[in-house]
Amino acid sequence: AQSVSQHNHHVILSEAASLELGCNYSYGGTVNLFWYVQYPGQHLQLLLKYFSGDPLVKGIKGFEAEFIKSKFSFNLRKPSVQWSDTAEYFCAVNGYGNNRLAFGKGNQVVVIP
Amino acid sequence: DAMVIQNPRYQVTQFGKPVTLSCSQTLNHNVMYWYQQKSSQAPKLLFHYYDKDFNNEADTPDNFQSRRPNTSFCFLDIRSPGLGDAAMYLCATSRESGDRDEKGYTFGSGTRLTVV
User: Mean pLDDT, chain B, as a whole number?
Assistant: First the structure.
């Protein structure tokens, strides 16, 4: 079964700072990778996803993530955050032929104006 | 817009009193999931339906059951809610896309369950 690790559960930074959230997964085969965002009081929304092709994936709201197969990583980045990026961010993975989407524990990001 | 709808948004139930949460979708996706998300934790998969086939996770308590009467609807039944079952319950859907196995998941807004 696949599993996902996210570190630094709480991240506090100022507006215009750069953000990078780490995500590592364990799974022996080919994977689909996702980053979801959950704004306060709202449902999970898809930020970006990787299925195949270019390992650098661009998502909504200026976010991007890079799949590094050799490191089993799918780190999320944004060069300059805004106060509105305050949210919880979840990395998720599902293995090929597997319906189960496994989530990491999430990163609570607070952006200070 | 096609979407996943969960009702109610907030549910309060008494300890031990059966409760049902509902999920409907207009996406015509063949797979539907129920996740439990407790505060500051990752969403945890309880079970999913692949078409009509029910797939239970090994560590899902027997207290949790599910029904899927048709493609559009899926229900989560908690037979005897305990205080530890208070959580956000998320419904999600996906569609098998054949050989490419590229799954997109769509989540509902969730139902926050409080047990008193």
Answer: 90
